[in-house]
């Protein structure tokens, strides 16, 4: 018998940054998950299907959560965040969607109290940790990461 408990299954997902057409805002939702304090969040969720890429998961989750259909081929991974704050490792891809001002619908009322486009200069608080870290891959002045959270940026000049 091993003295160490079995490792928890990692969570693998994508957070989706949907900029406004004018580039001055972003889509966020009021996250209302039972058992957690309310926060603001980007659309996103788990990579659910065998063979699904981060871009495909981002496009699917965006459509499932908001009704907004944007092509996976136009999504771009900016980097990944590894955190150990949820009782298991969580790997979240920061995915940049093409700009859109399409109407966002609440399709999962058990998890979201509404979608809004907010100015980048007035992001609401408190922000769900993984969403804040994903935004840090896109915004010029990211907030510092807490202990146990690691951020890795992709590079396009390789």
Number of strands: 8
- Helix % is 10-25%
Distance between the termini: 46 Å
Which structural class do you get from the secondary structure elements?
A: alpha+beta
Widest sheet, order of strands: 4-1-6-5-8
Q: Biggest β-sheet: count, sense, barrel?
A: 5 strands, mixed
The average pLDDT is 93
Strand content: 25-35%
The parts where pLDDT drops under 50 for at least 5 residues are: none
Protein name: 8-oxo-dGTP pyrophosphatase MutT (NUDIX family)
Domain Nudix hydrolase: 7-141
Organism: Kitasatospora kifunensis (Streptomyces kifunensis)
Give a written overview of the molecule.
This protein is an alpha+beta fold. The protein has one domain (11-138): Nucleoside Triphosphate Pyrophosphohydrolase (Alpha-Beta Complex), CATH 3.90.79. It is built from two helices and eight strands. The chain has helices at 54-66, 129-135, and strands at 11-17, 25-31, 39-41, 44-46, 76-83, 90-96, 112-119, 149-153. A five-stranded mixed beta sheet has the order 4-1-6-5-8, sandwiched between helices. A three-stranded antiparallel beta sheet has the order 3-2-7. A hairpin with a 7-residue loop joins strand 2 and strand 3. Residues 7-141 form the Nudix hydrolase domain. InterPro entries: NUDIX_hydrolase-like_dom_sf (IPR015797), NUDIX_hydrolase_dom (IPR000086). This is 8-oxo-dGTP pyrophosphatase MutT (NUDIX family).
């Amino acid at each position: 018998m091993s003295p160490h408990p079995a490792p928890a299954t990692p969570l693998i997902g994508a957070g989706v940054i949907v900029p406004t057409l004018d580039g001055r805002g972003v889509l966020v939702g009021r996250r209302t998950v039972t058992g957690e304090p309310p926060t603001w969040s980007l659309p996103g969720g788990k990579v659910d299907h065998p063979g699904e890429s981060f871009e495909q998961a981002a496009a699917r989750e965006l459509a499932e959560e908001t009704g907004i259909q944007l092509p996976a081929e136009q999504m771009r991974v900016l980097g990944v965040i590894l955190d150990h704050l949820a009782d298991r490792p969580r790997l979240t891809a920061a995915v940049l969607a093409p700009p859109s001002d399409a109407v966002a619908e609440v399709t999962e009322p058990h998890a979201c109290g509404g979608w809004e486009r907010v100015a980048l200069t007035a992001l609401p608080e408190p922000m769900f940790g993984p969403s804040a870290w994903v935004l840090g891959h896109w915004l010029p002045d990211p907030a510092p990461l807490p202990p146990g959270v690691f951020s890795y940026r992709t590079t396009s000049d390789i």
